[in-house]
Amino acid sequence: MDAITEGKQAHQHLAEPRARVGLIIPSVNRMSEPQFNHYAPAGLGIHVARARITGQWRKPAVEMKDVITRSAEALADSSPDLIVYHCTDSSMREGCAGERTLIDIVRAATGIDTVATSALVIEAMRALGIKSVVLLSPYLSNDVIVRYLNENGIAVRHDVALKLDGHAFTAVTPGRWLELAREHDRADADAIFLSCTNTTQMEAIEDIELALGKPVVNSNQAVLWGCVKRLGGKLGALPPMPALGRLMNA
């Protein structure tokens, strides 16, 4: 193959996406971009804007209006078909009412259909018939997540927070998430929920499902599934995605 032919083929791989998703992610997040770009099906464009919405910058939703608005407006310039306010802790922190506030801020700034990670996690669990989970996360505490899940009718049978800070989230390997799932699984839990958008959890989904024989939901996986579901009319038929577990067939 000559250089000209290779160049033409490379150009073909960069064809205009059939659908676009915009993600508003925490400024410290290192994993969502590479994972979405790796796992997203052909034809789905992924665009990202960062916002200082977690850690030292965390505030009630209404007090983050300006910073969220700036990120949303910048993201809207790429003309996404759908915007996701993409942070599990932030979108669940003030319950369903806070979730609505965040979505309303983005919609008011952009006029674009918007959904939050929190809502897509619940949507994924309902699609799989999940009513109870074992919750695993890198957080200092899972209290925020447990409250939100309970508010939406999901019982947490057992939870483990690894009590990590910041960039230490990404140091936990997929193999370690598998070990944690094996160790902490409960017979009375329908599924495993791997909570966080800034981890390697997504890469452990298939192995955990094979090991435990039950479904796994993860924040990034649930959001990608929800986006593909909403944009299916533009994307058309897609190949199987077994690495992302049972959810992708729900």
Can you tell me about this structure?
This protein has 250 residues and is α/β, with parallel strands linked by helices. It folds into two domains: 10-119 and 222-239 and 245-249, Rossmann fold; 120-218, Rossmann fold (3-Layer(aba) Sandwich). It is 43% helix and 17% strand. The protein has eleven helices and eight strands. It has helices at residues 3-13, 32-39, 65-76, 88-92, 95-110, 117-127, 143-151, 174-184, 205-212, 219-230, 232-235, and strands at residues 19-26, 44-51, 82-85, 114-116, 132-137, 155-161, 191-194, 216-218. A four-stranded parallel sheet has the order 2-1-3-4, with helices on both faces. A four-stranded parallel sheet has the order 6-5-7-8, with helices on both faces. Strand 5, helix 7 (143-151) and strand 6 (155-161) form a beta-alpha-beta unit. The chain starts with a helix and ends in a 15-residue tail after the last helix.
